[in-house]
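Handout, page 2. Input:
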Amino acid sequence: MSSTAQLRTLQTGHVGLNVTDLARSIAFYRAVFGLDVTAEGTDPDRRHAFLGRDGRLVVTLWQQSAGRFAPGNPGLHHLSFEVESLDEVRATERLLRELGAEFAYDGVVPHSEGSASGGIFFTDPDGIRLEVYTRTGVAGTAAAAPTATAPTCGFF
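Output:
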């Protein structure tokens, strides 16, 4: 029996992100995702924050990088958040536009041509690629998939 057969309840716990400006990133993730700061380290050499919701840790932010996220390097491709409805995706899009976020595509797009699922694809203040999507309700209400031959979330 392989050792992975024992991992019956495997799920993502939280995602840790390196950021350049902790205060700016805390403000962004709180505004966009409604996360609360559950812990914060203020030592100038080890600044960090834990952000969660409903008693669950979701994202940890670590102020230990410079520059912008480099999508061409190995590591995180993008971080995706699922919501229950297309209305929630569109409300998030409106908020992000008010915040001046950069979008990969204009508005809600399907995950693939004809897909019922889809969402918005954008970056945080450090250029980290993010997605907010819903599983249903997108077909027929959004633009065409950006690329007919590949998943939208894989190549933005």
